């Protein structure tokens, strides 16, 4: 009986050792998988044709943050071709561009509560463009998932056409609020 007890004890020790080494190995595998996933995300970000950009600033003491995919002109005709007139544009590339306001603001004189919004525009061949703030800010495929019923605010903004070319889309927090530049376009969105 003593021999059986010893074998049983040795068997239990071996089993415990085996189980703990499996757990340790699993943890290492999980860590390795997480590292590989992080590296893949970094590589994916580096490979993006339209790199993800983040910018922020203050307007009237309130923080304004913007995240957008920044496409380049690359010799293409942008307005009326790549970006159609009269159709909703995600104001960037890939996922929807979003803007976050730390406090209530007015956009082109209209009230907009603090929060996070996707930013869309409707380019026009002539006249004012429509700028849209939509409550669905986390849209993976931009304007393909856009739903007008989620619009919180629509305003009209007059585009300006410049001589100099802005190769890569740039959205900045500056006077008079947000300014969108791409190709020959300068679209100043007044925010207070």
TrEMBL record:
Basic and acidic residues bias locations: 26-49
InterPro entries: DUF2911 (IPR021314)
Superkingdom field: Bacteria
Residues covered by region (Disordered): 22-60
Pfam families reported for this sequence: DUF2911
Protein name: DUF2911 domain-containing protein
């Amino acid at each position: 009986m003593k021999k059986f007890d010893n074998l049983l004890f040795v068997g239990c020790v071996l089993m415990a050792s085996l189980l703990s080494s499996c757990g340790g190995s699993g943890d290492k595998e999980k860590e390795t998988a997480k590292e590989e996933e992080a590296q893949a995300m970094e590589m994916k970000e580096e490979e993006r044709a339209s790199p993800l950009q983040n910018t922020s600033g203050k307007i009237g003491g309130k923080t304004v943050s913007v995240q957008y995919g920044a496409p380049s002109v690359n010799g293409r005709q942008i307005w009326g071709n790549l970006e159609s007139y009269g159709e909703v544009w995600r104001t960037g590339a890939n996922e929807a561009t979003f803007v976050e306001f730390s406090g209530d603001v007015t956009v082109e004189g209209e009230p907009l509560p603090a929060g996070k919004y996707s930013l869309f525009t409707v380019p026009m061949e002539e006249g004012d463009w429509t700028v849209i703030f939509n409550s669905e800010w986390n849209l993976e495929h931009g304007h393909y998932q856009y739903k007008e019923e989620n619009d919180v605010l629509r305003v009209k903004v007059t585009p300006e056409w410049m001589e100099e070319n802005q190769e890569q889309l740039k959205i900045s927090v500056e006077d008079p609020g947000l300014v969108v530049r791409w190709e020959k376009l300068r679209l100043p969105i007044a925010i207070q």
